[in-house]
Amino acid sequence: MLSLARRSRIQSITVVAVIVTALVAVFTAPAMARGGHSPGGRPRSGPTQPVYSYANAVRESVWVDTGLDGEGNGKRDRVAADIIRPREPATAGRKVPVIMDASPYYSCCGRGNESQVKTYDKNGKPVQFPLYYDNYFVPRGYAVVLVDLAGTNRSDGCVDVGGQSDVTSAKAVIDWLNGRAKGYSSRTGNQTVRASWADGSVGMIGKSWDGTIANGVAATGVDGLKTVVPISAISSWYDYYFAQGAALYDGGPDVLAGDVESSSAQANCTAEQQRLRDGAPRDGDWTTAWQQRDYVPSAAKVKASVFLVHGMEDLNVRTKHFGQWWDALAAHGVQRKIWLSQTGHVDPFDYRRSAWVDTLHQWFDHYLMGVDNGIDRAPMADIERTPDHWTTDSVWPAPGTSATRVQLDPGSTAGLGTLGPLPPAAGSTETYTDDPSQSETDWSAQVDQATKDKVSFTTGALKHDLRLSGSGTVTLTATPSTSSAHLSAVLVDLGPATIRNYNGSGEGITTLQTKSCWGESTSGDSACFHDTAADTGHVDYTVFSRGWADLGHYSPSLHGVPLTPGKPYTITLRLAASDHVVPAGHRLALIVAGTDNGLIVAPDTTPAISVDLAHSRADLPLVGGYPALIRAVGPGAVTHPAGRTLSGVRGAPRAARLP
């Protein structure tokens, strides 16, 4: 476990201290501020220190030529980059690295738990830089650059939701920082600006759409991008809107673009809006537009290290995104690290603040400053097991994990089957009827009750802990009674626990009235943010992995077909990545059903589905593989307890949200 930062080290310092330390920084050796190497060139292991003045930092805006013409007006689009950097290094002829967050949210919606937006003075000079990156890192010798994606805030162009315009918006700024693109002092003028103060090293960070752009830019292999920190980020936009053909939201990317674009873009980007609608049909089919917004196949181009962060109960940017991106990065040997929390769509600053800031500081010091602090040799994974209790693993998925075949067997009561190592008899079947009013929380609460809308497969009480680490699959051979059908498969830990209330309004956190400060402040940009605490619930079950699909998209090509009633189809549902320990004494359940209300959109029919159990199975990422399954399940027969209703965190999100 990485050590926690001392609170005293990161509190705001007085104005007198700012002046004194700034003067010291100017007249002492460069390494004292930079923290990368001593004057003799020996690697330093200590962290960079807050020796530069935040109040006196350079605050400026630059408009970078993207080379695109999204509006089709014959003019090349420029994107706005608001910059804050320490004044002293440039005065002394030294260059600094950049921390960059490219976002569509700097004017429409805000960033962070407090929804901060950019603010400017009467001359258009930036005043407030959202989040704490500037307050904390500028005094330590970093520049912070916040980029308005094309079509948002003060940038030209059109929003294309993860496509060329989005990614090029940020990539162009990295090119400018490395002298490969032109920047201008205004949106329309001809006065060029060079980034003579930048050393060319860039680290991108951001949550949700911002982190998605970091993934997309890393997938271009752009020179100068040394590390990315994607938080709750998308890796393929198709998988944000669909799960193997099943719609996750009612709207498409054109709706999302309309939520964030500037008034200028709204007036001038109707053609791009139409392209978004045409390229993303609501039938769930794979198109060229989705292919262009899928970063996973380009993982081989990634040169940057990746520090990936995700909530394992994120039902907005669902955990499939980090799982497939992580696996692709691993396949190509990318240097990487991962944090997995029990939260929903939440930034680590709001659930593990002190440890997060300290770890992020070490990460940027190492990859942008060259500090040999050991972060690259530290345990790869931090995982939240219970609220505020974390464990570490040297690598992830956990050592000894292997895909393990688990069988689905009918029980003595229809709808209540068993889960274990032994295959079912030939001809074994279970049947359910889709009920779009029911959700995974309803199914789990009634896991031991025979209901018409689901089939439950459960183990007996486990003899030993059973850990699942990574991504699994559920293969079903299903015969529908109608021409369309949606399928859901969820893994559930059946047993009492205290977990974060990920379905609450804070998705696992409660915002407090107290504040703590993380860097230096000015009158227009405070480093002090509301503290948070874990919002917890006491439950009888925990849903920890999910998979959904439209049966008509059974082909890996993701081109759907109408189903023939009475005909069997075989489809493999990809379960979302997770890391969960089912403790001894608890039971593991796999629930198979139709529409997961609130999480996928219902099909246009309500079919009855017959599942051929002899040709169905689950392949789960078990730590210890098949021997661990046998030890945990034991040889005894499974008996279902009395069919009482279980309690869990209720109220799965219903409305589409911004990523």
Please describe the topology of this protein.
Elements: H1 15-27, H2 30-34, E1 58-65, E2 78-85, H3 87-91, E3 96-103, E4 119-120, E5 126-128, H4 133-137, E6 143-148, H5 164-177, E7 183-184, E8 192-193, E9 198-207, H6 209-218, E10 225-231, H7 237-241, E11 242-243, E12 246-247, H8 253-260, H9 263-268, H10 270-279, H11 288-292, E13 305-311, H12 320-331, E14 336-341, H13 353-369, E15 381-386, E16 389-393, E17 401-413, E18 416-420, E19 429-433, H14 440-445, E20 454-458, E21 466-470, E22 473-480, E23 486-500, E24 509-517, E25 528-534, E26 536-550, E27 569-574, E28 578-582, E29 587-593, E30 608-612, E31 617-623, H15 625-633
Helix pairs in contact: 5-6, 8-10
Could you describe the 3D structure shown?
Strands 8-7-1-2-6-3-9-10-13-14-15-16 form a 12-stranded mixed β-sheet, sandwiched between helices. Strands 17, 18, 19, 20, 22, 23, 26, 27, 29, 30 and 31 form an 11-stranded mixed β-sheet that branches. The chain has 659 residues and is an alpha+beta fold. 20% of the residues lie in helices and 31% in strands. The two termini are 30 Å apart. It is built from 15 helices and 31 strands. The longest helix is centred in the middle third of the chain and has 17 residues, at 353-369. Residues 1-43 have low confidence and may be disordered.
What is the count of helical runs? 15
What percent of the residues sit in helical stretches (DSSP H or I)?
10-25%
Low-pLDDT runs of 5+ residues are: 1-43
Overall pLDDT score: 92
Given the C-alpha coordinates, what overall shape results?
A: globular
Report the end-to-end length measured between terminal Cα atoms: 30 Å
**In percent terms, what proportion of residues is strand?**
25-35%
Strand runs, count: 31
Strand ordering within the main sheet: 8-7-1-2-6-3-9-10-13-14-15-16
Radius of gyration: 26 Å
Give the biggest beta sheet: 12 strands, mixed
Region (Disordered): 411-447
EC number: 3.4.14.11
Biased composition (Polar residues): 428-447
Domain Xaa-Pro dipeptidyl-peptidase C-terminal: 361-619
